[in-house]
Amino acid sequence: MTKASRSMAVPKAMQARFEGIVGITDGFCDRHLDTEYKELARRMTAALCRKRPASR
After folding, report:
1. Which of 1, 28, 30, 44 is least crowded, fewest Cβ atoms below 10 Å from its Cβ?
2. For 13-41, what is each residue's pLDDT tens digit?
3. Number of domains into which the chain is organized
4. What is the pTM of this model?
């Protein structure tokens, strides 16, 4: 898997949460920022969705 395709990969268990967050950030970026920030927000959200939950 290339780095570019991995940057947008999201586990199936997190797909719904990813889509919800991206819906919010996409709207904000469309209104106030540009497409580069929109892409950055999507990549950051995908990265956070791939992180394992912290155990206590």
Report:
1. 1
2. 999 999 999 999 999 999 999 999 999 99
3. 1
4. 0.80
